[in-house]
Model the fold of this input.
Amino acid sequence: MTGEPNLLGDHLRARRELLTPEQAGLPAGGLRRVPGLRREEVAMLAGISADYYLRLEQGRDRNPSRQVLESLARVLQLDDDTTAYLIGLAEPRPARRRRRRAKETVPPSIVKFLDALSLPAFVEGRYLDVLAANPLAAAISPRLVVGANRLRDVFLDPAERALFPDWDLATRQLVAGFRQSVGTETDDPRFIELVGELSLASPRFRTLWARHDVAARRGATVRFDHPLVGELVLNREKLLVSEAPGLVLAVYHPDPGTDAADKLALLGRRSHSIRTEGTPRMSKLALVTGATSGIGRAFAERLAADGHDLVLVGRRQDRLDEFATAHSGVRVVPADLATDEGIDTVAEICAAEPLDLLVNNAGVAHYMPLADLPAAKARELVKVKVLAPTLLTRAAVGGMQERGRGTIVNVAGMIAFSGPAPQAQLPRRAVYGGTLAHLVAFSQTLSAELEGTGVRVQVVCPGVVATEFHERQGLDLSAVPRMSAADVVSASLRGLELGEVVCAPGVEDASLLETVFRAELAAFGGQRPELATRYRTA
Done:
């Protein structure tokens, strides 16, 4: 016995339980305590001993011969795909430490091909993540965009489910293809998280996953019930990307001269008209991080009310889904910006989507003195409040410059200006305050860099705000006057109209901020190449 998963035994057991005696050419007999065939029946039909088959299912023997596996495949009536999968499960696996797979990257040539292709197409990864897509794919489904996951969308998104009148068939094919794609690499934390999430959230996925169906990701005919054109029947081809193992290029195409060809052409013209420069888009697109509570949630509420389409990023899938259910035009992206994977996922969306507004609001409640701050929490704080806003802004700003419009809003806080405050007035929170100060300096400098490009940058610096932050810190501020998160958002949007780079919602006298900025510039301009007198030795 080993500590590794019993992939071969689990698969044999699942397939045995799906096969009835009648299908195997055996009499049903009397009452059966288990579904499907008995172990000894499988062994007899395969020409091996019952004890040896028992050892295979229990994982006590994991390296049967190919001849034995082919005999079992014949008895269990496995097709070619499932037989190949079964044989692969018995191949020796090198011992290795559990770790995440390297990030999947679409070759630049394939990205160019997608952009040039006049058919809906997208690239999916090993775990059915959408890694690249062209606008026509989004015309088929708004969920066919970078950062989405086909399993999550088809099983958990009611709007995506409604696209498939043959949903039972579509989900069966999707899960069978997913199992074949993953193969024996089931120790990747990303795979474990995804299967665990779907198993908890979807009874249908849980049932299909337990069947151990396997099918290669190949072409098929797909029938959609599209909200704009009705029934749409397309051929779907799935082509392996040779430069990137595990990646598959999916292309939808109609039969020539059919009703589906006319409908797809209509969707293509509509998609083009929305994207054409000078033609008003249906709505503006905003991406908000930290959107599940506090200021981020208030931004999402206000922007939805103002008619924006939204991409909402947060750690809490349940809160994101709750918001999406209550509002139209919302796509949710569960991602942890304290991880490289989370940052990369959202950065890809920022680079691929025509964002009008990016709100970097995500934060973590690690508000404590440096000596008390664990290294892991310090790293998390810097990633969420420094690295993530920097990389997401970098990803979004190129497209904004090309379009000649866009807005970046970074949410910091007045603590950014509190460095000189005495300990008695404000207990030291060096790392937390330092990350906010970085956002202020970053935003001011970036605003100057982007002057004349049509891209605006703002940093919002509220004081004490009524959010969940203080509750998570165990702080009782019920007696302290606090601003509402909605007021912070109103100040930010009005500040953009006023042309403010630094928005301080609670500072009535704006000249105070101007005094600070003038003093900083004066200090910067007052430097000389010689050592200042006070530093010279007597």
Summary: Residues 119 and 388 are 34 Å apart (CA to CA). The chain is about 45% helix and 10% strand. Confidence is low (pLDDT under 50) at residues 275-282. The radius of gyration is 29 Å.
